[in-house]
Amino acid sequence: MIELEGVPELIDPVMVAAFEGWNDAGDAASTAVAHLDREWKGEVFAALDAEDYYDFQVNRPTLWLDNGVRKITWPTTRLSVVRVGGDRPRDLVLVRGIEPSMRWRSFCNEILGFAHELGVEMVVILGALLGDTPHTRPVPVSGVTSDPDLARTMDLEETKYEGPTGIVGILQEACTHAGVPAVSLWAAVPHYVSQPPNPKATLALLNRLEDLIGLRIPLGELPEDARAWQLGVDQLAAEDSEVAEYVQTLEEARDTAELPEASGEAIAREFERYLRRRDIGPGQAPGGHATESGDTSYLRDTTGGRTRPPKPVRPEAGGDTGPGAPPADGPGREGDGSVDGDGDGPQGLQGPPGDSPED
């Protein structure tokens, strides 16, 4: 039974979810939801029982000290609510967690139970995958859905993917079968620089989410972090002539393929986003407050700072990195894109087959 004490009636709520692990290359998707939670000061109001869905030998709990008292944070999925202010306030239900180890159907049913009780109008699931995309170009973000009507009305792709999937694909199908409109947004992360963080991919997901739900999202330091990340990768790539040549090949292929769009739809979208941001005056800037909740005992993500990107991988070390390839999981930290069993860093895409941006 779902209890939502302290959560008020929500205004046009949209659920935004992301899960660390297989569907989170460069931690881009989970970092995007963490950014929303931080910028709009979300407070956790519910958490799924970790015993039901996680193998603690795969995702281990952590010990920490609170004023000298030892406490445990269990790997799980947590939900928070934020109200976005402005002329047209709207609530977001943020779901952030780790891809479950077991009982995926029960996991999805529990998430959908919260969505039903909260009156969620649409579910947006964020994901990130490894692909043949140059770090010097805008991050490709695909919006896909299993609902033909939603695909038509929101200018999305109707998924035709067949093959192995992760929790993003399973949750989207569960929403569709339950009659809840659901969309997945997939960012493509360069496979040759796959380790987290990737602020450029996170920024691209947030921009696409902003277009989808019609809200202005405060970006904070993300644009500056994205520029710093790209400059760092530029410098590292320049140190290796083979990698630099490979990046140039990707650039040429990308520019040739997207030349028609760059002159039309992409420019129009950027101009519309500029107008939306320009029209919001200082007194209308979207603030936010979290719904008050008694459950604030969970350890929140307080990590910060900037990380220098890892050295790009030589292209010959990579495997299949087409747009249908998934993020590769590392042996140590799930979803970090590293697949080198010796712990020497990323070695290209060598993981199991998985999700495509159509999933």
Tell me about this structure:
With about 350 residues, the chain is α/β, with parallel strands linked by helices. The protein is about 35% helix and about 20% strand. It has helices at about 30-40, 50-55, 105-120, 150-155, 165-175, 200-215, 220-240, 240-260, 265-280; strands spanning about 15-20, 45, 60-65, 70-75, 80-85, 90-100, 120-130, 140-145, 155-160, 180-190, 290. The longest helix has 22 residues, at about 240-260. The two termini are about 30 Å apart. Residues about 280-310 and about 315-355 have low confidence and may be disordered.
What can be said about this structure in brief?
This protein is α/β, with parallel strands linked by helices.
Please give the share of residues in helix.
25-40%
What is the element string, with H for helices and E for strands? EHEHEEEEHEEHEHEHHHHE
Shape: globular
What proportion strand? 15-25%
Q: Give a count of the beta strands, DSSP E runs of length 2 or more.
A: 11
- Residue runs with pLDDT of under 50 for 5 or more positions: 280-312, 314-356
Largest β sheet strand count, sense and barrel closure: 9 strands, mixed
Structural class assignment: alpha/beta
Helix run count: 9
Distance between the termini: 30 Å
Mean pLDDT: 77
Rounded to the nearest angstrom, the radius of gyration is: 20 Å
